[in-house]
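Margin note: ligand = NAP.
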Amino acid sequence: MARYQPHKNLLVGRTILVTGASDGIGRVAAITYAQHGADVLLLGRDRKKLEAVNDEITSATATSPLIIPFDLAKLHAQSETVLTDSLRDAIQQLDGILHNASLLGSKVPVAHYPSNEWESVMHVNVTAAFLLTKALLPALEKSSDASVIFTSSGVGRKGRAFWGAYAVSKFATEGMMEVLADELSDTNIRVNSLNPGGTRTTMRASAYPAEDPMTLPTPQEHMPLYLYLIGPDSRGVNGKKFDASSWDGS
Ligand code: NAP
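Resulting structure:
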């Protein structure tokens, strides 16, 4: 159990973008950030699911969430401006991004990995996060204390058979975090990665269909670390790799 005790108003006055906010860890993180005062931008590909998260937030908090129905598979250099211009119109500044949306893809040997699926997984998990970050850096620069979190995985730190493009994309995610953290080390923007570890979600159930989900921690159990990294208490922490399963909150 993490010792970190976030203040209930930890994120008041902050605007935070959460990708993959319609389900799983991203949904819980978005709601938790709003419960701590943040205005959250909810990005996901399913409008109905996003509206349900939006309703949950507006009925329980005084914050102003905004839904951004957008399929990151369709985010390309050409479409980047459409998304980011509308985001920039909606917000003055951006105080945080939780890059959380990911595709799992097939769990098969590299020899049999479908090439088109490889490209989709790499695009959603890596290229879309790069395009979003690049386009939103000017909005992050306007914040006096901005945090970017990239979501990693155990297989993004130690490769494992049959994890294919997902594992490779998470290694790339870690690389992107390190490069960006180094480039921004003298700025107001910190960049870190977070591996939630095995967590009770749809993605985990797809990856391990025989596993009993009740043996896994829920997304809620990881929220102290998600709050610590996105909020002011992690000011000065940059370029670090976090593991929710071993973080002791100190
Ligand atoms: P999840 O339950 O599958 O949720 C993924 C979220 O990403 C959903 O909101 C999903 O939208 C969204 N998403 C997927 N593709 C998208 C796209 N093309 N455009 C926009 N949104 C898209 O996954 P999770 O388990 O919560 O995982 C969250 C993060 O933690 C991921 O980065 C994952 O790699 C990482 N992680 C998870 C575990 C685990 O055990 N759960 C372990 C290690 C790392 P839909 O609602 O439309 O599907």
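The first strand starts at residue 15 and ends at 19.
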